[in-house]
Amino acid sequence: MTDANAASTPVFYRNPVPLDRVRHAAKRFVRPRNAAFASHVNSVPLAGIEFTSAARNYPVVFTSGDPIGAVAVLGFEGSQNLFIGEEKQWAEDVYVPAYVRRYPFVFTRTPEGEFVLCIEEDIGAIADEGGEPLFVDGKPAKVVEEALRFAGDFQVQIDATHAFTRACQSAGLFVDNRASIQTSDGRSITLQGFRTIDAKRFEALPDATVLDWWRKGWMMLAYSHLMSLGNWQLLANRASRIKKKA
C-alpha cells in the first residue's frame, strides 16, 4: 500500500517548488482538467474530519509508518485507483478526499520546521499565458490566497489526526492487518502493510478514556473507521466491474 509518510515527496507530487513572488511574478495558474495525476496510487492521506464522509465509499485504515497516518484505500494493487474512470475523472457521487482537491498545491516543511506553500511544476500548472495570475502587483492573487487557506486548514487537521493516532497507539488499539480478494479472473490479491483498530480492544477502553475521547470527538473517528471496513467488498465489486469492462 502507498505509504505517504515514507515517501520522499508527497504522494502525486514529482517536483513541487515554492511559490515565489519574484520567480512567479508574471506566471499564470492553469487548473488541472482531470484527476490523471491520481490514477497510479492505491491510497491517499485523510484527515480525521473526513472520516465520516470517506467511510461511505472507502476503507479507512492507518499506515505502519511514523507518525501513523490515516488513508483512504483506492485499490488493491500498488498503482491501482479504482475511482478514476476512462476519462480520467474521479467517480461521480463519491467523496473526493481533501488531499486530492488540494492538488497541485502542497505545504512542504523547511529544515527549520516552517511550512512553505509549493506548487507541482511538472504538470503544466504554471504557464506564461491563460489561466489565473499567481501574483498581482507582487502580492498573492486570489488563487494563491485560497490555496494557502485550504492547505493550511488541511495541515491543521492532519496534525489533529496524528494526535488521535498517537492516542490509539498508546492505548494499544492498533493491529497489523491485510485484505485479500479473489478477482473475477481467478487471481488472488492481498493488500497488506496497514493497521486497523482492534474492535475488542476498543470496546474494552476504560470509561474515563471513553469519556475523554467523546469530548475530543475521537470516538466518532474510531467508529467511522470501523464501519468503513465493510467497504472492502464494495472495493472488490468495483474492481470486478472494471475488469469486466476491460
How is this fold's topology laid out?
Layout: E1 16-18, E2 28-29, E3 43-46, H1 51-54, E4 60-63, E5 70-73, H2 98-102, E6 105-109, E7 115-120, E8 126-127, E9 132-133, E10 135-136, E11 139-140, H3 142-170, E12 174-182, E13 188-197, H4 199-203, H5 207-216, H6 218-228, H7 231-245
Q: Can you walk me through this structure?
A:
This protein is of the alpha+beta class and 246 residues long. The protein has one domain (16-236). It has helices at 51-54, 98-102, 142-170, 199-203, 207-216, 218-228, 231-245; strands spanning 16-18, 28-29, 43-46, 60-63, 70-73, 105-109, 115-120, 126-127, 132-133, 135-136, 139-140, 174-182, 188-197. The strands form four sheets. A five-stranded antiparallel beta sheet has the order 3-5-4-13-12, sandwiched between helices. Strands 1-7-6 form a three-stranded antiparallel beta sheet, covered by helices on one side. Strand 10 (135-136) and strand 11 form a beta hairpin. The longest helix has 29 residues, at 142-170. The chain is globular, with a radius of gyration of 20 Å. The two termini are 23 Å apart. Residues 3-7 have low confidence and may be disordered.
